[in-house]
Design goal:
single chain, 433 residues, alpha+beta, FAD/NAD(P)-binding domain, D-Amino Acid Oxidase, Chain A, domain 2, 3 domains, six-stranded mixed sheet
Length: 433
């Protein structure tokens, strides 16, 4: 073994890690990409939309090459209250034009494809390899300890892309103890339905797809929301609940998903679907407030390990943030290796560039939303008030129709004037500042 086996070791072959490995290998660096699953994406659970911004920049032929399910041409937001539902719907054929704004995908297939891009560029992929610890010398990270023959693998730089519960980030002292309110638990299943049935129910054609998000009051005070994303001939259906509310309610996440699926608005969309997959995972939702330190001597954090997820109600973005962070980290790592200086000071351009990018700008812009979304009234009082106001408005009455805002106030007022004003101020701050 030489003093260094590789120029850079990347731990985790998700979107962030594979993007970093691809970029570094493209720049001529000797890169080892370690993945604990049998292949990239084998351990990932995902039901959602991937925005194509980074793919358009770096993989211009991705529409033909990548495993895309459906371009998302319709966004639907449902507020649920009891048996009622109120839907805000947006559809645009322009979103279905190549190269697409975003698309649904199976992460197992997408991550495998992206990992293949890294290998094609020259990175060495080592699947089924668990990393247990960092190698440190004089306070500097100089490699990792992996469960493989000879165990220790050395490199002047390690990029940790090992997910939201990042063991390496904690070992490095970069991730501090986080507030449990910053996490949610998501459960997802894949239901098989014929393509024609999906298109009819979700009001899309064969060249389009739908992203449907749901929020409302659930049993025993549980806070969270559901989602349905259309694939070619399957639906990704799931529920995401805030960890503190799960503990308070004493409800299992599987029970929460079942309650979500029983709501009439949801049941109509998924009726007859045959379950193909099922699983649960932790979701980071603290945004800007839960960001860790991103560098230390010989190491950088990217993707979910760096908490680069925007959870802003109807906006939920993470995959292209992860890819962008991986590519930025790779560029900074390459420059640092050229200088022969991989100290934290030399790597400090990475957090600066990330903060100045659209990733940092978006996380800062919506930094107040995660705290607002922990407020129980957001999921209970206001969906209930809006649904009841809509029902009253459309109901024929001998006294005549009341105006919508008066009806809304009628149903909000019993829950407290000051609480409503405080929530309105917080919402204005979250959305305008």
């Amino acid at each position: 073994m030489s003093a260094h086996d590789y120029d850079v070791i990347v731990v985790g072959a998700g979107p962030a890690g594979s993007s970093a490995a691809w970029r570094l290998a493209s720049l001529g660096r000797k890169v080892l990409l370690l993945e604990r699953g049998e292949y990239p994406g084998a351990k990932n659970l995902f039901g959602g939309m991937i925005c194509s911004l980074e793919l358009q920049r770096h993989f211009p032929h991705f529409v033909k090459d990548a495993p895309i399910e459906r371009p998302v041409t319709r966004h639907a937001t449902y507020l649920l209250a009891g048996e009622r539902s109120l839907n805000l719907d947006f559809a645009s054929a322009a979103l279905g034009a190549e190269p697409y704004n975003g698309f649904t995908a199976y992460r197992g297939r997408f991550d495998r494809w992206l990992g293949g891009q890294a290998v094609a560029a020259g990175a060495v992929l080592a699947p089924s390899t668990v990393v247990d610890d960092l190698l440190l010398e004089g306070g500097r990270v100089v490699g990792v300890l992996a469960r493989r023959e000879q165990g220790a693998v050395r490199a002047p730089l390690v990029i940790a892309a090992d997910g939201i519960l990042s063991l390496l980030g904690k070992r490095a002292g970069l991730i501090r103890e986080r507030d449990p309110a910053h996490y949610s638990l998501g459960v997802r299943e894949v239901l098989a339905l014929p393509a024609g049935t999906i298109e009819e129910r979700f009001q899309i054609d064969s060249g389009g797809g739908c992203a449907a998000l749901f929020a409302g009051r659930w049993s025993q005070g549980l806070q969270g929301g559901g989602f349905i994303y259309t694939n070619r001939d399957t639906l990704s259906v799931g529920f995401v609940a805030q960890l503190p509310s799960l503990e308070r309610a004493g409800v299992g996440i599987a029970d929460a998903l079942d309650a979500f699926k029983r709501h009439p608005a949801v049941r109509r969309l998924i009726h007859g679907g045959e379950r193909l997959e099922y699983g649960a995972h932790v979701v980071p939702e603290g945004g800007w407030a839960m960001r860790p330190r991103l560098v230390r001597d010989g190491m950088l954090l990217v993707g979910d390990a760096a908490a680069l997820v925007l959870a802003a109600g109807v906006l939920y973005e993470g995959v292209h943030y992860a890819m962008h962070s991986g590519i930025l980290a790779a560029d900074v790592a390459h420059a640092a290796l050229k200088r022969g200086d991989v100290s934290a000071r030399s790597l400090a351009d990475y957090p600066r560039r990330l903060a100045a990018s659209y990733v940092g700008r978006n996380l800062r812009a919506f930094r107040h939303l995660p705290a607002l979304l922990t407020e129980p009234r957001i999921y209970g009082v206001y969906p209930e008030a809006l649904c009841r106001a809509a029902e009253d408005f459309f109901r024929a009455d001998a006294a005549g129709h009341a105006k919508p805002l008066a009806l809304l106030w009628r149903h909000v007022r019993p829950h407290g004037l000051w609480a409503a004003l405080r929530d309105a101020w917080r919402a204005a701050r979250a959305l305008l500042r």
